[in-house]
């Protein structure tokens, strides 16, 4: 091998390691910037503190965690059944020719920037909740007042945003189930529906599970859309019509004008977010590799 | 008796089947309708406000009046810097994975972290870019800080797309080239990469799409200046950030719709081009 090829090989190797280096750098810098506040304030007080009021020096992120959880759970409740139904329809029911078109529609859904989803939520979903959902709510609870900026609005928009993740990974893993499984089931006299429900879905379950976990990660990490529609009130919510602030939204909104300590506190929020997302991603990675559901 | 029972059972099963098929179909239809409504709503409300003036004039009164010319320039610069940095690294990494790497533990770890990088949310990239590029390296809120942050974000997209298309090149091509006396590098440059141009291009275009739509990370690293940047060390504003500011502050309904519509048009264009490339020129090796 010529010497210049050896040099090239080294350069190529360094490029391949680049993403690993990036992950390491990101970890180091987020932790380094946020740890001082965590250490000073106490991790438990930080996580379980019920007041987020940076101007008064109280950094309790329980309301933010509650907000993120509420919006994410709402998105999953809407997104999981819709996503899995779409994946089944796409892989087993729709003819191949149409499936391809449907897939590019899903890709398009994934390509729309999150700030556009947020804007759509702001001008369509929020007013719709104020004008149509609120009156229904008022039948049961006449005192309730709401602006439409709410958990519900966030959940609806996030559900749309995580659909592509759930649909494409679930569809891949359903398609990856070996043909023999399906043929054996049909040969035993099961009809198509029974085959799908009792054979294909269980066989693809690890892939479907990872699609849900990745979708959940995406919902937790989503920033711009929730920032525009959840109302950004750092209070533990009582109903789905209440406004909430999320971990991500709070960082994005307050970073611009934060004082140095406040900034450190936002980095500490970043640490919590980072740890949650990392755990979810690692679980998804392992669940996709193990348990058979071949997805690549 | 038995026969009737059997018939009934069959009927129940078929209606259950219909319900099942219909049910999944309804969910699919809802998904499709959602897509059409979102795109349609924004285009219908925004297209009428996009005109030459909007595209070529600079924003006045914080974007309330005038156009978005400086924002378009800012978007092009930030995206351009990001893609220019990410492309060679991404392609090289993909080449390493498919052509050089032996399936060892090290490679598994590198791959794992590439997947992890893809899953990190944009606000975390923003925090990192702010702490590292803006503060630590002293680049300030600038095109280059944003470009470098975006480069990291699109890297996994580029690696994945390039790798996918490298994998489709038949082994025989490599063997043929090597047996003719070409070195490994010559084989990669003269045989394999020319075969993969469409795949690499698709990855590049999807990366551009992701970079243009990115907001949270850009907001924390590029800043929000509305002036036309004169160098890569100037602060600027991208279209997504501009849309956020307009929407959050309720500055001007028509400018907000117009900006959103422009973003949608770009996304549609990018998707169409990516689809065309991968379907027309996609890996066809006579099989």
Structure explained in plain terms:
- The complex is a heterodimer of chains A (296) and B (287).
- Chain A is globular and about 70 Å long.
- Helices cover 77% and strands 1% of the residues of chain A.
- In chain A, β1 and β2 form a beta hairpin.
- In chain A, α4 packs across α6, α9 runs antiparallel to α12 and α11 packs antiparallel against α12.
- In chain A, strands 1-2 form a two-stranded antiparallel sheet.
- Chain B is mainly alpha-helical.
- Chain B has two domains: 48 residues; 229 residues, MetI-like fold.
- In chain B, α5 packs across α6, α6 packs across α8 and α10 runs antiparallel to α11.
- In chain B, 45% of the residues are buried.
- At the A-B interface, α1, α3, α4, α5 and α6 of A face α1, α3, α4, α5 and α6 of B.
Largest sheet of chain A: 2 strands, antiparallel
- N/C terminus separation of chain A: 33 Å
Helix content of chain B: over 70%
Proportion in β-strands of chain A: under 5%
Domains of chain A (count): 1
Q: What do we call the CATH homologous superfamily of chain A?
A: MetI-like
Based on the coordinates given, report the CATH architecture of the largest domain in chain B. Answer: Orthogonal Bundle
In the CATH classification, which architecture of chain A applies? Orthogonal Bundle
Summed up, the helix count of chain A is 12
Strand order of the largest sheet of chain A: 1-2
Shape of chain B: globular
Number of domains of chain B: 2
Question: So how many helices of chain B?
Answer: 11
State the CATH topology of the largest domain in chain B: MetI-like fold
* Overall number of strands of chain B: 2
CATH H-level superfamily title of the largest domain in chain B: MetI-like
